Amino acid sequence: MLQLEKLTKSYYGKRALQDISLSFPRGEIVGLFGENGAGKTTLMKCILGLLRFEGSVTLDGAPVSRKNIALLSFGTSEHSFFPNLSAQAHRDFYRAHFPRFLDARFTSLMDFFSLPMHRPLRTFSTGQKNQFEVILALSQGADYILLDEPFAGNDIFNREDFYKVLAGILEPRETILLSTHLIEEVAGFVGRAVLLHKGCVAGDLSDWEDEGKSLMDVVRETYRYRPDRVGKALDALVGEESK
Question: What domains can be seen in the chain, in order of their start residue?
Fold first, then answer.
């Protein structure tokens, strides 16, 4: 189990995360949602040990360290691969460093996205780079796969097909933590939704369908979305322009 206890992170005296306590058992697909600046990327980077923080993050009761960091993988649209190496070279590198590397999954996903094996990654389009980043994260052999806005630059058909493929290939030990703004698209894919707001947990939900609501309805309620704000803004702008 991945366990977070009172995780708190500050930047230059300003709190980005405040007392985050969450647990993620194996076998879950979790959506991590929140407005820009809510703390989604910061939370993932704290879990991975890329940022210093207060509180604790443990894997099966042990702190995240070099001994167990291979149980975590990370896919981000910021890209963490070697741009001058080919996909084939990345596969060789991962095979050498991750004993649980899933070679068959890597090959299948490369075929699914029709990505070339022998071209340098710097020649890929933005969408292809993001696809490859996700492939590496899913093929590492990790138990906890953290994906931060992984589908940027991909068209809706690629995204929809990929959700179906991903749901079909995951093993019972694997947990996905997916940060995205595409809430309506992933509502049928995720089984649990963690909502962040201004660095705090605003909701931890898994039964929105039992309440007869869509995930988007619950998100709107949680964030107290005001549908009239567009009209008010337009009225104010029109009023200013007419003066």
Answer: 2-206 (3.40.50.300)
Task: Give the separation between CA 162 and CA 226, rounded to whole angstroms.
Answer: 33
Using CA atoms, how far apart are residues 37 and 17, in angstroms rounded to an integer? 10
**CB 173, CB 26: distance < 8 Å:** yes
Q: What are phi and psi of 56, to 5 degrees?
A: -145, 150
The answer to whether the beta carbons of residues 131 and 115 sit under 8 Å apart is yes
Tokens of 16: 């980005």
Q: What is the pLDDT of residues 21-73, one digit of tens each?
A: 999 999 999 999 988 889 999 999 999 999 999 999 999 999 999 899 999 99
Amino acid at 241: E
